[in-house]
Structures
1.
Amino acid sequence: MPEWRQGEDSVSLIFRVPLPREKYNGAVVIDHIITGLTTNEATQRDLVVIYKAISNLGNIKIADVQKLIGKSYVTSKRYLQLLKEAGLIEYRGSLKTGGWFAVSQ
């Protein structure tokens, strides 16, 4: 389903097309996907930082994301949800001991 986004001085029409998992290896592709999630540059930077931390470390909790980007619990949770909906990360394990991981290649 196409999605319309309105910026301060622009309007964008976004078509979400799933990419084959093997293309997720390239940082440029990841940056491009994240850029399509929001028009706010500060949010895009935070999403890239979160994704890189998750892909490097794995088993990241919301509290870890809060410390990493200096945002509230609600904002951190929303950012994780954006990355999840983009198919870049997934939650594994129980609510108590589980965490966020990059989607397997």
2.
Amino acid sequence: MKIAVTGKGGVGKTTLASTLARLYADEGRPVLAADVDPDANLGLALGLTEEEVNSIVPVSKMKELAKERTAANASNTFYKLNPQVSDLPEKLSRDVNGVKLLVMGTVDTGGSGCVCPEHVMLKAILSSLVFRKDDVVIMDMEAGLEHLGRGTASMMDQFIVVIEPGARSVQTFGRIKELARDIGVTKVKVVANKVRDESDEEFVRTHIPAEDLLGMIHYNAQVIDADRKGLSPYDVSPEAVEEIRAIKAVIDSQE
């Protein structure tokens, strides 16, 4: 199972990604969770402390490793476009509550000259994740599919867009669905988060086709509080976990 979770910042995609990862891990399945969002909050949501999260060096910052794997020359003008990276997810990940966490980070091009080797290595690692056939791979993405190449994206089992009950979120889903279609991906589903009442539920059902809706997660003060305190929602909100467990059941039925 290969799942990419995306959506605008603050909609709750990290809550969904982290809880799905821990639910699969509870079943004894090997799970690799890749944090591809520049905000890098997945570690906290999985159960790491803030100090532990801060001790992790994102893959994007490993410049010497990138040069080594891409055989880049001193000026980064020549390098391999298809470096060997299949061993890196295992070597660079951190075990947390049964989940292997891989913090990808993002490449900062501002004033730093050519950073192509790091970018190439990141893309290569993301591509390699879809070939981990025995693992559940969950990617916590930023809003968009720019990180994924055409080949990588086409091999994902699920693209899940997390939305809130509002016009802007629905519009984001539409844009991501168009981007996905452009790279040959047709399986784009929705999870509605922070749903408050029946009117929110009706809004979601009116604007999202039934076949695209995996489920809803209701507004939960425990989850909001967990986020403020840097705690895992899995450990503080049984209600949210059960709602996400039901969403997972739908995902599994489509596997």
3.
Amino acid sequence: MNWDVDQTTGGRVTVRDVLIDAERRLATADIPSPNVDAAEIIAFALGVRRNRMILQDLVTPEQRVRVEQLMTKRLSRVPLQHLLGTAAFRHIELQVGPGVFIPRPETELVVEAGIRELRELAAPARIAVDLCAGSGAVALSIGVEVENSRVYAVEVDDEAVRWTRRNLAAQETALTAARSRVDVVQDDAVLVADAGHRLARLAGQVAVIVSNPPYIPARMVPREPEVRDYEPKVALFAGEDGLDVVRGVLRTAAILLKPGGMVVIEHADVQGADAGLAGVAGLAQSLVADEELSLLANLPIGQIIWREVVDRKDFNGLPRFTIARRAS
């Protein structure tokens, strides 16, 4: 589109004109969801919410420059959420940017499983842990949606923790209204329950553990440029088979959960029940208490740790997360 002269509006440029042009350019560049991205970019440049845009309004030269700056970055595959500085997740809006993993819609179902479990419990028992917390999407959603809950958000990476704390501060009012508390714990999800670490005192007391850990094999290159080039590597990769952190999460969960407590772990669609020992469900079913876990989790040596292991699908019908209960 020629910004100087628009024959359909007598030389004027409206929001509709800019929107159509942006959609076309994003679609030509094979950007996913070009319609949504175009609308979000233009609304952000205009300083209004997407549902408040009036398509017949005129766009000032300054606003057109701002749209073009944002479009240039999006066309180079900078994530939309980095441009906006926020990402919507369930009932909250999170601040995101370089250094923290952008929460995905698929994880909303993972959190839902944990929320439903907690709501069935009496208030004093509503203790949850979010392992590999990142932006805090999981922990904060639990705290806001489950009244009288106590949630611990565990994250090891310095940059990610800064985003976790920033989002916690932004959600304090909502947490107070829910009479909930979220504590940020900077520690390794694999070690946080061990002696001398922050959550060791909670051994055998936690009702629900939810985790969206890194699960991409080290040699695999993500297809999407937004993931490959902009997401923090520490949030993506986990050893040769992608399950190193998952193994640690299952161990930590075995220590922290009370008997019958639930663990919910997100995974790649190729790491479901059909993957056997190369999947999360298979790993959980095969885990038995060794001498160390026997002491830490108060289980007999050789006992199977996880029961009622099931795998669940996402919005697209793909295997996405595993649920299991800690044995007595």
4.
Amino acid sequence: MNETVNTITEHIKAIDTVWVALCAAMIFLMEGGFALLEAGFVRRKNAMSIIAKVIIDVAFGGIAFFVLGFGIAYGNSNGWFAFDWGITQGDIGLGFAVSNNLFWFIQLGFAIAAISIVSGAIAERMKISAYAVLVVVFCALLYPLVANWVWNPNGWLAKEGFIDFAGSAAVHTMGGFAALAAALVLGPRLGKYNED
């Protein structure tokens, strides 16, 4: 009997792992969609800049989320903030059947999707170097802080019973408010919307 239960548990874990890996891959495929969408909103001379921003999202955002972001989002939280380095290998209290490495990968996709929202809002208005700094700060600190509140089992919103299905608050709201703040600071695009 125990052998049958163990076999079923292993099969469930394998199916969950494949499913989460496929979902993570689809989330990362959105980056190509973001690149095409944003390239269609800008003038031809800035299209390559948009593609570079998507590459910066994945490269710089990935490193920042690996080094610090995941630990802030899913480390041992006091309700408001957590701190840990890299990918936490211990139990993060969510009861998942997938490894923390795979969970980090899908969460990285969410962090990069959130910063991609900001990228579209500031198209043609920010230098690549300044944008790279924004990506690092966003993926290392800002987004993980909100993810901690919402998805960490000890986060203050999670303890209040807040449920964020598919990232409507942690990903889209955080990305939207950060995009609004950046657009207000940078102002309108110069030279695109003239009186003529």
